[in-house]
């Protein structure tokens, strides 16, 4: 079997195609089920144990807090523990895994699962993301978690063994967060690869319009498959994304308030800035990939419009018009709880909402001082 590359040249099919690789797929995948169920059980045990421990420490410290700064730090600790349990719960028990099975079936129709160019592109981007996560965890998340536990309010290590224990818990916590965010990122990369191929083929036809009529229909079909992939992915993780975004925004706002009004020492600034940078970086990366789907799905509109003039054929004009209409709607993408499509406009609105809350900080601070 031959696969058509981005420049419409046939390339040999690879022996093994690319699939979404994650421990969570054991729910619908029959390969190595026993071992993967065992590993998943270990991960869930770690999630519940570490998350519960963090929330317990936060609650215990909150009862003895006297100042607003201390209470703010305890709230951050509690959200820290709650978030890791929450995202795993939503991914495993709220997400509709039947949609993921349908996603895999539709992906197999693209013909890209064995395409070397697509495989290399997805693997390259996934490696970059995982390196990014490692840097964030190592430079920001771990020090922030350690600093919270070693602050005046938190569990204080009495000897080297307790310090090592807390360090291990912090590393495991960071790894668990990275693991659960890796899965939706893979979904986004697979979807983007389809629309990227659509745009590549449209760009190729601009330079080589001779076979436009033969290819326009296949390009429209591939775009339609990408649209179906996006829909299934959205139906699968829409509530996971919604709760993740909500927690991230809450983290950011609380940290900004702490930095502006409740940080008095270098340690306070370090804790707040570490968490803020880590959460904002994670939010930005997830948002970027979600927006990228919408952008790539409509990117080829102008190329399609240009191609509509290349031949005076009713079939060709009809195919180009249908593709232009679908791209022009600009509604393909992941959504926030099926309420809004995550686009650049959505990000702007979310940023505006955050700024509105930030502008209300002085009022909140004045009320708290009374």
UniProtKB/TrEMBL annotation:
Protein known as: Gustatory receptor
Lineage of producing organism: Eukaryota, Metazoa, Ecdysozoa, Arthropoda, Chelicerata
Keywords: Membrane, Transmembrane, Transmembrane helix
Organism whose genome encodes this protein: Tetranychus urticae
Sequence intervals crossing the membrane: 37-59, 75-95, 132-151, 163-192, 236-257, 269-291, 336-361
Domain of life (superkingdom): Eukaryota
